[in-house]
């Protein structure tokens, strides 16, 4: 078991709570949620990166806060943890621009895992 200090990039068990029965012809919640994450979080990630590099505490804090929650919902545990740390540092006015590269890499790695999970969940649901 991984500690909170070393969370996994992706924990597929987190998707279990999104796997609720749906009627015929309906898109499963897990598929919709993964799609929304993949489609909507690039702007948040860019805001975090830009905010860290520019020293913009407010933009960084807000984007990191939102990304933290969204990441936790889909099981992107390491990204949620890093976003939480960034949010707390931004709240204290202690941004570290060097974290931007680490964040950018972890975000890309997390999205790649989630794209794979979306493909698996879509296949299971019979969605092309």
**Largest sheet geometry:** none
CATH class: Mainly Alpha
| Stretches with pLDDT under 50, minimum 5 residues | none
Helix content: 55-70%
Q: What is the first-to-last residue Cα distance?
A: 35 Å
- In total, how many beta strands? 0
How many structural domains? 1
Keywords: Phosphoprotein, Two-component regulatory system
InterPro entries: HPT_dom_sf, Sig_transdc_His_kin_Hpt_dom
Pfam family, one: Hpt
Protein name: Hpt domain-containing protein
What does this structure look like?
The protein has helices at 29-54, 57-74, 77-91, 99-124. The mean pLDDT is 94. Helix 1 packs antiparallel against helix 4 and helix 3 (77-91) packs antiparallel against helix 4. It has 4 helices and no strands. It has one domain (26-124): Four Helix Bundle (Hemerythrin (Met), subunit A) (Up-down Bundle). It starts with 28 loop residues before the first helix and ends with a helix. By secondary structure, it is an all-alpha fold.
């Amino acid at each position: 078991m991984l500690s909170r200090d070393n969370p996994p990039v992706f924990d597929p068990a987190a998707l279990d709570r999104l796997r609720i029965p749906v009627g015929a012809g309906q898109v499963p919640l897990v598929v919709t949620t993964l799609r929304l994450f993949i489609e909507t979080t690039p702007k948040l990630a860019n805001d975090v990166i830009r905010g860290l590099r520019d020293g913009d505490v407010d933009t960084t804090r807000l984007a990191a806060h939102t990304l933290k929650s969204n990441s936790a919902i889909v099981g992107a545990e390491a990204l949620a943890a890093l976003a939480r740390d960034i949010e707390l540092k931004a709240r204290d006015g202690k941004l570290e621009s060097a974290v931007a590269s680490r964040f950018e890499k972890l975000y890309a790695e997390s999205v790649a895992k989630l794209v794979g999970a979306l493909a698996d969940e879509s296949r299971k649901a019979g969605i092309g």
